[in-house]
Threonylcarbamoyl-AMP synthase (Vagococcus carniphilus), 343 residues
Amino acid sequence: METKIIHPQEIEEAVKAIKEGELVSFPTETVYGLGADATNEEAVKNVYLAKGRPSDNPLIVHVASCKQVTPFVSNIPEKAQRLMDTFWPGPLTLIFKLKSAESLPSVVTGGLETAAFRMPNNELTLQLIKESETVLVGPSANTSGLPSPTTANHVYQDLAGKIFGVLDGGASFVGIESTVLDMSQENGVPVILRPGAITKEQLEEVIGEVEMDQHILTEKEAPKAPGMKYKHYSPKTPVIMIDYQKNNWQEAINEFKNEHKKIGIMTHPEKKSLLNGYDAYYKLSQKYDVVEAMRYLFAGLRYLDEDKLDLDIILVETYPEVGVGMAYMNRLKKAANQKTYKK
Ligand code: TXA
Ligand code: MG
């Protein structure tokens, strides 16, 4: 199959393909999704095949309005309604109890009695969902295990030949996947299963107490979001974190240089100007700024992983684990397999 880059003015082609059960990658503010009609079991099966994704890892159902959620769920708790009013469209995924196990094909939910819903903040994709007259599954449109795609070109690199097309909406401005919040326990405290750009503090401002899944805090206990247990976000080249407090960049570069390693660094220009002996640089942000670092983290990992650079190691800047720093560090730690230089 020849995969097509679909330009915004050609959106009708994407709509037609979705209606025919084809796979079309769509842009969102977080990362690109791999879209298919969530009510079409065959199409959803092909999503898992194209990504090489384990089939017990359930998918997020993307909607263009709150109304599109109601047919599937038993009820929308009042707190959830408030969150939708505040943060939708936006980088927040909510998990609800389904009306019945048959409300959605079990390939979407991984056989669970709950399902995840999100309204992405992207005009083009909202139009795609509306005009397709259905709801769309949308896992990140990468090959399973690799960093998530934040441009149409990233998607093309991973999935060319395997999907109908990529709707090109430019670069994603958040850069990492949505916050996943479990609202399915009737009287329990809502739990963050995956940290994202919408922070615990922001959620608590709207609905009161929210918990962070223990696994995210300790990296030990088995995670509740099935997807969090898999190897994730890693380029082929090993990644090592440089602790912002130790700030031992030059020491790390010197050590790897002595081992005849080719080194890539991801930091900001001011820091870079103080360093020497590295082989490649990716500007993670203009200055030390976690929101910007989050936007370019995956793009940088992909860039420094390109074969032509032939690097042996990628060094990346850490941030304090507060606010959105939780989400940035969650992804970076996975990419680095938890490795910090001399820690
Ligand atoms: O920002 C995003 O959420 C992107 C864009 C494209 O919308 N999508 C995305 O999808 O990241 P995916 O499939 O890569 O991640 C979905 C996450 C996984 O960790 C999965 O295990 C979890 O959500 N999840 C989905 N349904 C669930 C459920 N019913 N219960 C618990 N976790 C669930
Ligand atoms: Mg993913």
Notes: Residues 57 and 216 are 17 Å apart (CA to CA).
